[in-house]
Amino acid sequence: MLMGYWPLVILKRMLEVLINDKMKRGVIVLIFLFGAILIYFGVTELKSAIIRGTGNIDSIQVYKSKRKLMFFRNGDVSGEFRISLGFHPKGKKRYEKDGKTPEGLYEIDGKNPKSVAHKNLGISYPNQSDRSFASRAGQKAGGAIKIHGLLKKYRKLGKLHRFYDWTAGCIAVTDEEVDYLYENTAVGTPIRILP
């Protein structure tokens, strides 16, 4: 049995004793749903992200398939955040409004403290390769790809926003996480976005 989930086992046991048979099934289903949420986020994901070290972040890597943003100091992993992506997350961004998050090597090219999504860090998409690909297909490459916090109407969701890929192609973290990145990441910092 997983050590981090013992509170669920105790709660289930108590409910079995206290609740009559008709209600047991519904309560057990709710317990399992709660357990699934814990497993999805991982026990540590319900707490603050683990951050090691201080000072400027020297690079960022995003693993789209793992929904993970990792940041580095002096070449060592300094921390990581869980993320949400564009509403069509699989594959490389090719065109404007395709709902995909880019893949490739870019850099942080700007910072906005008054974004509609709390704060943001700009990503230098599209690069020359992205523009050329879109142009050959007679399309626009798009742009305005950011690492950002939550839209005002979704702020209360906090980390629960991760249940759904909801951006137009950006990388979303919580407001607290974008605050941290905003304060510790300089314009020009490289960001590699991997499938």
**How would you sum up the major sheet?**
8 strands, mixed
Measured on Cα atoms, how large is the radius of gyration?
20 Å
Q: What's the overall geometry?
A: globular
CATH architectural name of the largest domain: Beta Barrel
Question: From the structure provided, what is the oligomeric state, counting identical versus distinct chains?
Answer: single chain
User: What is the β-strand count?
Assistant: 8
Low-confidence stretches: 43-48
Count of alpha/pi helices: 4
Would you state the CATH class of the largest domain? Answer: Mainly Beta
Q: Considering DSSP H and I runs of 4 or more, what fraction of the residues is helical?
A: 25-40%
Question: Would you tell me the overall average pLDDT?
Answer: 82
Could you name the CATH homologous superfamily of the largest domain?
L,D-transpeptidase catalytic domain-like
SS-derived structural category: alpha+beta
Order of H and E elements: HHEEEEEHEEHE
Provide the β-strand percentage band. Answer: 15-25%
Please provide a written account of the structure.
- The chain is of the alpha+beta class and 195 residues long.
- It folds into two domains: 3-46; 59-194, L,D-transpeptidase catalytic domain-like, CATH 2.40.440.
- It has four helices and eight strands, in the order H-H-E-E-E-E-E-H-E-E-H-E.
- The chain has helices at 6-18, 21-41, 128-136, 175-184; strands at residues 59-63, 68-73, 76-82, 104-115, 118-123, 146-148, 171-172, 190-194.
- It has an eight-stranded mixed β-sheet with strand order 3-2-1-8-4-5-6-7, with helices on one face.
- Helix 1 packs antiparallel against helix 2.
- The longest helix has 21 residues, at 21-41.
- The protein starts with 5 loop residues before the first helix and ends with a strand.
